[in-house]
Design a protein that fits this description.
This protein is mainly alpha-helical. The protein has a domain at 5-43. Helices cover 35% and strands 0% of the residues. Helix 1 (5-14) packs across helix 2. The longest helix is centred in the middle third of the chain and has 19 residues, at 24-42. The protein is elongated and about 75 Å long.
């Protein structure tokens, strides 16, 4: 697929890019080359090739999915405003919002 000046001008307008008239021929050639390469990629047989997110066959180290309190109980409660912490169990109290 090759692009002409009108197509490049329309693409530039859609992309909100200002392109001078003397640059249109050069950009048309470059964009046509890119589209030609994409057409070549579409012809590649990928049957039996699993989808992948990277060309490097790496796996990230995983940690155990364990629920903890973070070990910062006192530090979290120290950030609470006065009168918000209830003495029994260290819970936060909030005003009643539903009647």
């Amino acid at each position: 697929m090759s692009l002409d000046k009108a197509a490049v001008r329309a693409i530039a307008e859609l992309a909100r890019i200002e392109v001078r008239d003397e640059e249109l021929d050069h950009l048309a050639g470059e964009l046509s080359g890119i589209l030609h390469f994409v057409e070549q990629l579409a012809e590649v047989n990928t049957d039996g090739v699993p989808p992948m997110s990277s060309v490097a066959d790496l796996t990230l180290p995983m940690r155990a999915d364990v629920v903890t309190d973070g070990g910062q109980f006192a530090a979290v409660l120290a950030n609470a405003p006065d009168g918000v912490i209830e003495d029994q169990g260290g819970f936060f109290t909030v005003p009643k919002v539903v009647e």
